[in-house]
UniProtKB/TrEMBL annotation:
EC number(s) given by UniProt: 2.3.2.23
UBC core domain boundaries: 5-160
The name this protein goes by in its record: E2 ubiquitin-conjugating enzyme
Family matches, as PANTHER family: UBIQUITIN-CONJUGATING ENZYME E2 (PTHR24067)
Keyword annotations of the record: ATP-binding, Endoplasmic reticulum, Membrane, Nucleotide-binding, Transferase, Transmembrane, Transmembrane helix, Ubl conjugation pathway
Molecular-function annotations in GO: ATP binding; ubiquitin conjugating enzyme activity
UniProt keyword Membrane, yes or no: yes
Subcellular location: Endoplasmic reticulum membrane
Native source organism of the sequence: Achlya hypogyna
Signal sequence bounds: none
Taxonomy, superkingdom: Eukaryota
Residues spanning the membrane: 192-212
Main subcellular location: endoplasmic reticulum
Length: 214
């Protein structure tokens, strides 16, 4: 259970984020537990197009003690659902500064994500793999009920993309069928024309033979 100090501080930080949001960063606390926050980082560079969902789990003693930091979306930089070793996480309480906030923690994570410095919880992948993860990230996130509840605008955005994709696939499928039907009709007419011409030729030969006999 959150202490009065942690509750007051985290509510204040949420209000500050609502008033002055960080670029490419969104974060909200769970309604049922103010000590658990969920965030989304919008990718840049090789992460362009990615939406990276994660969570911060604060101790009841916050801000005197640091939170645990997790990344939940497959991303190619960090392991998923594992505590990350960062200077502002609970892996390093000795470096924690109580003046740091949700905003500064996520800004630090965002910056570190765009580096290649290894740490406990980081992984090594190619740029191509990172781009593949980025392209699939919103689809992946929308499988998570907490993500959908915390970030309904992004969930709706993904639903619109999925609907458009389905419509495009249906249209492409219809075009393919139409094209196939057109080709099939052309083939039928070609065969029919061939047999008509062949029949006429045979009939002409027969008529010539009859006339010759007469």
């Amino acid at each position: 259970m959150a202490s009065a100090m942690a509750t007051k501080r985290l509510r204040k930080e949420y209000q500050a984020l609502q008033k002055s949001p960080e670029t490419n960063i969104e974060a909200v606390p769970l309604e049922r537990n103010i000590l658990e926050w969920h965030y989304v980082l919008r990718g840049i560079g090789i992460y362009e197009g990615g939406y990276y969902h994660g969570k911060l789990v604060f101790p009841p003693e916050y801000p005197m003690k640091p939170p645990s930091v997790y990344m939940l979306t497959p991303n190619g930089r960090f392991q998923t659902n594992k505590r990350l070793c960062l200077s502002m996480s609970d892996y390093h309480p000795e470096t924690w500064n109580p003046m740091w906030s949700v905003s500064s923690i996520l800004a630090g994570l965002y910056s570190f994500m765009n580096e290649t410095t290894p740490t406990l919880g980081s992984i090594t992948t190619t740029d191509a793999q990172k781009r593949k993860f980025a392209a699939a990230s919103l689809d992946e996130n929308c499988k998570n009920a907490t993500f959908v509840a915390c970030f309904p605008d992004l969930a709706e955005h993904q639903a619109a993309i999925a609907a458009q994709r389905a419509s495009d696939e249906l249209s492409n499928g219809a075009l393919t069928v139409t094209s196939f039907d057109s080709d099939a009709r052309a083939l039928v007419w070609a065969n029919l024309s061939y047999w008509i011409a062949a029949g006429i030729a045979v009939l002409a030969v027969v008529m010539s033979a009859v006339v010759f006999q007469l």
